[in-house]
Specification:
The protein has about 325 residues and is an alpha/beta fold. The protein folds into two domains: about 160 residues, Ribokinase (UDP-N-acetylmuramoyl-L-alanine:D-glutamate ligase, 3-Layer(aba) Sandwich); about 140 residues, UDP-N-acetylmuramoyl-L-alanine:D-glutamate ligase (3-Layer(aba) Sandwich). The chain is built from eleven helices and 15 strands. Strands 1, 4, 5, 6, 9, 10, 11, 12, 13, 14 and 15 form an eleven-stranded mixed beta sheet that branches. Strands 3-2-7-8 form a four-stranded mixed beta sheet. Strand 7 and strand 8 form a beta hairpin. Helix 3 runs parallel beside helix 4 and helix 8 runs antiparallel to helix 9. The longest helix is centred in the C-terminal third of the chain and has 16 residues. It binds adenosine-5'-triphosphate and magnesium ion. The site of magnesium ion has 3 residues, from loops. The site of adenosine-5'-triphosphate has 21 residues, from helix 8 and helix 9.
């Protein structure tokens, strides 16, 4: 069991609405609605706590609608170290129609006072001793700069605590400049960083290896059903996802990141960790929510996950699956 901190700077209450079909501009009747405390770092924490780790969650949380978050943290056994900010945490609505169309309406997040950001840095510094990893996940509230995100990475790296980063756009570019130990972009996020499309797995591999050479030790590139590339200090493995029927891909990337961290912190051989994390992410897309390693056919999903080396075929004989 490891001590891990996850940071979510822009959490959300997720409002899931199911409806036959939406008629815009009219009164509609929904089939069901539910609301959950969400945010990428919280999803990662959920998976890691389920795997037996001692997990603290922090970031920025609005006081006006914090009740559901606090209840969720208690239910999951997560230590609550969120900095409170005035106002409401944003609400993200996800509208699912019977035909399968999903429409997301994501809020920007509240304005964050400068003193709350200072408090977050202080909170991070006070939590770092004894931590085995920090995960920083998700988008930034509108007035939090990418440079601020980079400074959080710096603070943890200065104390030699590994930092794993999962964000996008300018925040990803700035965060990578602070040399996190690990990063988990999806294909599109990595392409935005690279400045050109990464349509093939060879192109994704080259971008991942470039990040390795720039000092990011672990680069995990997820490409949905096409699977995962894990480049570690210039040595890359590829995982092919098992085939599953997709219900919801929300939280798949968070599940993958948590599974990868679990393998690394458990000292598992790389193939074992990548297989576990890829199978767990595939498990997560079969239902709403994060992946569950206790599901009945999880061993089978792991057996169906094929691992290959992309950089050392001669040594491994090509297939590790
Ligand atoms: N259709 C699918 N079939 C099988 N596995 C999948 C599928 N979609 C996603 N996965 C698994 O989940 C992992 C992460 O998915 P994806 O690449 O979509 O992450 P992401 O875009 O970061 O997601 P998120 O919305 O959680 O940020 C993939 O690498 C794969 O292992
Ligand atoms: Mg993602």
């Amino acid at each position: 069991m490891a001590r891990i901190l996850t940071l979510t700077l822009n959490p959300a209450l997720d409002l899931a609405i199911r409806i036959g079909s939406i008629r815009l501009g009219e009164v509609n009747r929904t089939e069901s609605t539910r609301i959950d405390a969400a945010g990428k770092g919280i999803n990662v924490a959920r998976v890691l706590a389920g795997l037996g780790h001692d997990v603290t969650v922090s970031g920025l949380l609005g006081t006006d609608n914090e009740t559901l978050f606090v209840r969720t943290f208690t239910e999951l056994g997560l230590h609550d170290a969120f900095i409170r900010v005035p106002g409401e945490t944003r609400i993200n609505a996800k509208l699912s129609e019977t035909g399968g169309r999903v429409t997301d309406l994501n809020g920007p997040g509240p304005m964050i006072p400068a003193h709350a950001l200072d408090a977050l840095t202080e909170r991070l510094e006070s939590l770092l001793p004894g931590l085995e990893a920090v995960v920083i996940s998700g988008s930034l509230p509108p007035n939090v700069t990418p440079a601020k995100l980079a400074s959080l990475v710096f603070v943890a790296r200065a104390r030699r605590v590994p930092v794993w980063l999962d964000t996008s756009g300018a925040a990803l570019v700035a965060g990578l400049g602070a040399r996190p130990s690990g990063v988990k972009p999806n294909e599109k996020e990595l392409a935005d960083w690279a400045g050109h499309p990464l349509d093939t797995s060879e192109a994704r591999l080259q971008a991942a290896l470039r990040l390795n050479s720039e000092g990011v030790e672990d680069v995990i590139v997820s490409a949905g059903a096409e699977g995962v590339i894990w480049a570690q200090r210039g040595d890359a493995l590829m995982a092919e996802s098992p085939r599953v029927s997709v219900v919801s891909t929300v939280g798949a990337g968070d599940t993958l990141l948590a599974g990868m961290l679990h393998g690394v912190l458990s000292g598992w051989p790389r193939e074992q960790g990548l297989r576990f994390a890829t199978a767990l992410a595939a498990e997560s897309v079969r239902h709403i929510g994060v992946g569950d390693p206790r599901t009945a056919d999880f061993e089978q999903l792991q057996r169906q996950t094929i691992i290959r080396s992309l950089t050392s075929d001669a040594r491994t004989g090509g297939s590790l699956g």
